[in-house]
Amino acid sequence: MFSDYPGRSSATHIPLISDMRSVRVTVALFWAVVAVVGFWASPDSRMTVAGPQFADAATGRVVKSLKRAMNQGWRNGAHSVCAILGCDYEQVKAHLAHHPASFHSFKAVCAQLDEFEEEITTSKQREEDLTPNQKEYRWLLLMKAAAVLNHCLGTKFSVPANFVPPHVKSNEYVPGQRGDGDEKEKLKSRMKALQVVVPLPTVDEIQNYASQRLASLRQTHMDQTKELEEARHRKFLLLQEEHDRQTEQMISELKLKQTEEMDTLRRELAEEKRLFDHSVKVWDAVSRLLTDAHLGIEALSERVHSMSQQVFKLSSFYDKLHSYQQASKENPTGNAAYSALSYAFQSEAAVEQAMQQIVATYQEASGAVARIQEILSQAEGVTATAPPRDDAPWFQQRQRGYKDRLDSFNNLLTDLSVRLEDLMQTAEERKLVILFSGDEVRTQTLALLQERTNDWSARLATLRERAQGIEVAASKFFESSAQLDRTTGEVVSAVLQNPDAFIVQVSTYATESGSLRSSANVIEEDLKNLIKALQEIGREMTGMTEGISAAQLPPAVLEFLGLPGLFNALNVDMQVKAKGQQMIQLIKARLNQTVEISRKLEMLKNEVKNIRSPAAREQAEWALSEVSTKLQDVLRAKAEVELEIQQINLQLQQAQATIAQLDQRMNHERLAAKRVAAGSSAAGGLRGNSLAFGGTVGGLGGSIDGLGTSAGSVMGLGSSVGGGLNADSRVTLVELEQQRQAAKEKLQELRQSLSTKQREAVSLENEARRLEAEVGTKQRELTEEQQRIVRTMTLAQSLTTGAAPTASMTMASLRGGLGMTGGLGGGSAALMSQGLMGSRATGMLGGSMGGLGGSMGGLGGNVGGLGGSMGGLGGNVGGLGGSMGGLGGNVGGLGGSRGGLGGLSRGGI
């Protein structure tokens, strides 16, 4: 059981674990039978004390063993591991389910830990009974489980210190870490010594037995296969002999048949050769004539083909001209119109040249037809002189072949003649059609180009109107921005007098800024579209000019379309591009200034929101004064309590002295009673003096000096008398004891009163500290309020003194190329004259801030700029330095009559 250790691979433990599980099941069933038989062996044993206890204990162990045996071992061990390491079993199992290798190792370690715990349970050992080897083995299993969890889950679990053996705490073993060879060998030897040998078959024995069975079965299979192969081979030899015999017989018969066929074929070929030699002279003449006819037909075919190509060229002229015409109609803005116009000018000369070539080819082809017809007539006459050979199939086939060829040549010649005439007629027709189509294409193309130039003129006029609209929108943009600056400047000037209006104006400014930005985007987009449209017209006009030049059309076409005048007008109108870009730069600069002003307004808004109203500031001053008054009252009350504590301390000292004197007198009375002899007269005198003394003392409310004098007289009386009655001494002692008890009760009351006053003093001191902290807090709040007001005034000053960039151009300069009639007004030299604040650049406070109580009369009216009615925190409340004396006047600034709670309040306790 103890043979495993974390340094070995968990994969080697699987057979041992399965074997051990089966053994555990068998052992558990055996003990179950033993327990049942042992319990029911004697019916009377159930009535004894030992019988039922033995049966119950055995049954519990059997049930626990069965639970572990039925595939519960690793789960029990896992619960133990999770309980020791401090992790959740369900979470660990859920995470390890995604890592099969780690989960397998974890199960193996948990199963070994469960076996260890089962052995400990079976042997009824407690924790302190475990041997060092058992503790070390359990520690190794826990270390390996922690290593598996840390590696898989990324945690840092470690074995608790109470599970670490004492002899390994100084040099703990880390799973996966190599040590030196000696320590490893020592660990292996210790683990080997801890092994428990189970009398079971080993893996080697099982494997040897399985190998022997496999070898025997394999030999049986090989014998069976060998027997089948030998039978198959014997049958194959018999079939091969029969097949060879049949094959030899068939070859002999086939050779005889082939010899007879060869002889017959030789006789037929000799006859055919004789017939061929007899008529070869006739066919040679026919062949020469057909060859000449074939050469003539080929030459004629080439001429006809050439003529067809020339006619097709005429047709291609027409088709190409027609395609250019259709393309120019479908896309009048493309290059097809220029190509059609150019092709229309060039097609007439090309058609005349092609017709001359076609006529020449036609004349040559007509002469060739006459020559070929004469050759074919001669061939027909020679073929008619050939004798018929009905007895010669080859000759008949050849004769039919020559006749078929002759008929074919006649048909070809006829077809070529007809085709030649058709081509000539088609060429004449195409010539007339092409000339008519060329005139039509020239007329239509020039009309289409004229429509495009008229469209450009109309579009230029429309773009001039759009430019005027852009001028008006830009003028409205700058006017709106200037009006927004004026309104915002007025509100910022009165930010402290009317903060609500300022906050509303900030929102309004943000909204208006968004509107201005939208207007600027529209203006910029419209201007871009305008420039883009002008550039598009320029590209189209340039494309037409380039197309006319590329088509090599005459210059009169340009003059007819009016392109030079349109180019002059476009060059003038394109000046709007540079002026429009300058205007867009001014608009963007104005928008950037608006963004900066919005940022400063938001900062000012945040500061204004944090500034309290005058009523709230007065309330804060009143609260500071009230707290200061409370602090003064608390300090005064604390001083009174400390005086009371001093008086109580004096009373305590007096009571303690009284008790000490009474103790001394009681001791003296006890000594005197032992020495005095019995006598009535002496006893009577002593009792009278004692009673007199008791009246003199009269409790703890008398004088301490008088008490001392009475005690002295009593002591003197006792010494002078030298004796007294025993009964009188007892009465005196009783009276003294009563006085002493009363003095102790009074002392206890004084101590309770002192404790109460001390707690009251501590409470008052805490209250004073709290009030001091509250005073400091309110002072800091007023100081922060002053700083916020200063920041607000600074931001307002920066807004009012910041000058806006000027727009030094006018939209009137955009009229040059587009024929504009207006603009933004020639007299306005700048669309933004004074920026955001205009002439208010001197500041919204009337020149200078003058502290916070200058000419604007803001916070200086109510609080005097933190220097008015409040008096710099020193008016009504004396700035903590007036009527209060800076917390050091009447109460001594927490250092006068208080004197620290460690002085009079605690001196003498």
TrEMBL record:
UniProt KW keywords: Coiled coil, Membrane, Transmembrane, Transmembrane helix
Residues spanning the membrane: 21-41
Chain coiled-coil ranges: 214-275, 406-466, 631-672, 726-788
The protein, known as: Transmembrane protein
